[in-house]
């Protein structure tokens, strides 16, 4: 697989690759915070004012958080890039959801908080990692292949902790808190299924064409660039707010 991928690298794609990188940069420059790894302003107000068990609204918020979070989607896109069997997709998605759920609940209930910019920069790093993993960089550079299942669980933990950190800022009511957080995680799972179903359908068509192996390498390079942009955006925010 890696050899086929590397053979695609020889294709002259520099102009197209640069254009895609610039497109990602343009998108990240003008995307509002509402679509970042967090909660939209309107939803933030709802969370702050809500009290008691509200299962359906929090399932909706969880699903919305997943399908509008481009950092989530970028990472998951990288995770399933070379997965063909549904049981493999289900395994990796479940590992990510498990990690996300554990740290979201743990972070909120224990009120452990870390600067959101640092967490989000690490999330950008997770996108970079997955892109490098997909192009076989670790094997070529270090002669070592990280355990992708462990890495997916680890980054799921970080993604969940990032959201927990932001929710703590909203002073959410303790009334019905645990039930609402569980409902939120159920919504995250629904959102993942919706987003991944669409991605898998599109990739199913793409994989049947010769262009998949031709552009697989460049696609992961663009994804890696997007991860670096996410990191730079968050580190800049950390420096400015400090």
UniProtKB/TrEMBL annotation:
<keyword id="KW-0812">Transmembrane</keyword>
<feature type="transmembrane region" description="Helical">
    <location>
        <begin position="150"/>
        <end position="168"/>
    </location>
</feature>
<keyword id="KW-1133">Transmembrane helix</keyword>
<feature type="transmembrane region" description="Helical">
    <location>
        <begin position="75"/>
        <end position="98"/>
    </location>
</feature>
<feature type="transmembrane region" description="Helical">
    <location>
        <begin position="46"/>
        <end position="63"/>
    </location>
</feature>
<keyword id="KW-0472">Membrane</keyword>
<feature type="transmembrane region" description="Helical">
    <location>
        <begin position="180"/>
        <end position="203"/>
    </location>
</feature>
<dbReference type="Pfam" id="PF13795">
    <property type="entry name" value="HupE_UreJ_2"/>
</dbReference>
<dbReference type="InterPro" id="IPR032809">
    <property type="entry name" value="Put_HupE_UreJ"/>
</dbReference>
<feature type="transmembrane region" description="Helical">
    <location>
        <begin position="215"/>
        <end position="235"/>
    </location>
</feature>
<protein>
    <recommendedName>
        <fullName>HupE/UreJ protein</fullName>
    </recommendedName>
</protein>
<feature type="transmembrane region" description="Helical">
    <location>
        <begin position="104"/>
        <end position="129"/>
    </location>
</feature>
């Amino acid at each position: 697989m890696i050899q086929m991928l590397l053979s695609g690298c020889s294709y002259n794609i520099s102009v197209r690759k640069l254009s895609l990188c610039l497109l990602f940069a343009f998108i990240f420059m003008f995307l509002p915070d509402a679509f970042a790894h967090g909660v939209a302003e309107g939803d933030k107000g709802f969370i702050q004012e809500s009290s008691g068990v509200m299962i359906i609204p929090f399932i909706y918020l969880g699903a919305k958080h997943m399908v509008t979070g481009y950092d989530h989607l970028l990472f998951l896109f990288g995770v399933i890039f070379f997965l063909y069997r549904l049981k493999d997709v289900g395994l990796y998605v479940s590992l990510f959801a498990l990690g996300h759920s554990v740290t979201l609940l743990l972070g909120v209930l224990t009120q452990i908080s870390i600067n959101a910019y640092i967490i989000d920069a690490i999330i950008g790093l997770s996108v970079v990692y997955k892109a490098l993993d997909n192009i076989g960089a670790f094997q070529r550079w270090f002669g070592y292949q990280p355990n992708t299942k462990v890495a997916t669980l680890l980054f799921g933990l970080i993604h969940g902790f990032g959201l927990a950190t932001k929710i703590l800022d909203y002073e959410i009511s303790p009334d019905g808190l645990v039930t609402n957080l569980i409902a939120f995680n159920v919504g995250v799972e629904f959102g993942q299924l919706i987003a991944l179903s669409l991605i898998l359908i599109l990739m199913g068509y793409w994989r049947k064409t010769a262009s998949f192996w031709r552009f697989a390498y460049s696609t992961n390079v663009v994804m890696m660039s997007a991860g670096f942009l996410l990191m730079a955006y968050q580190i800049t925010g950390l420096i400015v707010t400090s």
